Structures are given as structure tokens and as C-alpha cells.
Amino acid sequence: MTPRGGTMLGASRTTRGDAVVDYEFMRIYAARGDTVVYAAHPSRQQPAQLRGVAMPRREVVFENRSHDFPQRIAYRAIGDDSLVARVEGRSRGKERAIELRYRRVACTP
Fold first, then answer.
1. Residue 35 is assigned to a structural domain of this protein
2. pTM for the complete prediction?
3. Are β-strands 36-42 and 72-78 bridged in parallel, bridged antiparallel, or unpaired?
4. Which of 6, 42, 50, 98 has the most CB atoms around its CB within 10 Å?
5. DSSP symbols for 38-105
6. Structural domain includes residue 2
7. Contact 55, 63 (CB under 8 A)
8. Domain enclosing residue 21, as ranges
9. How many domains does one find in the chain?
10. pLDDT tens for each residue of 49-102
11. What would you report as the CA-atom Rg of the chain, rounded to the nearest whole angstrom?
12. What is the rounded CA–CA span in Å between residue 26 and residue 54?
């Protein structure tokens, strides 16, 4: 959602056929001072918070080195209607990275 009141809200779901197999609620908000926080509430997992550590032009990076996985999430804007998310960290003793590409689409009822 468009930022308003210092907060952006988001939701995602993964489906297979007609079944929802995963979902996540997200909130990016301005905390004290200039700190930005990414709060994730994924299905079947404990909520997690990552703090903004870098905000170069058209990109934001969040980290929480004590979280199980991921420890780092980066979003980079591509043009006016797309972005790339990179989720990375250690999982089961190995470095892991997932790159996700998103494009704005019109919502249909």
C-alpha cells in the first residue's frame, strides 16, 4: 500500500490450485528518529522485525543478524512499476538467497 501515517502495509499469499499454502502480512514503518522497521508475520512462523540499515537511491535494506532466516531483505525499485526483492541469510548452516521480482498489476474483483 502507498505510505500513509509513516506506515506501509502489505500482504502476500502463495497458492497451489485453489489452496492457500502460505501467506504473510508485512508492515514497514518509521520508528523513533530516522529508523525504519520491516515487521513480518509469516504463516506458521513467529513474527520477526528487521531494521533498515541502508537506503541508497531507490533501494532499502533491512537486517536482523539474530533472526533465523532471513537475516537480510533488500528491495530495489526497477522503473516505476516493478521491484526486485532479495532475501538472504544462513539457513541450516548454509548461505541462501532468493530473488523475487514484482510488477504492479491492476486488482480485479
1. yes
2. 0.85
3. unpaired
4. 50
5. EEEEETTS--EEEEEEE--TTEEEEE-TTSSS-SEEEEEEETTTEEEEEEEEEETTEEEEEEEEEE--
6. no
7. no
8. 7-103
9. 1
10. 999 998 889 999 999 999 999 999 999 999 999 999 999 999 999 999 999 999
11. 15
12. 19
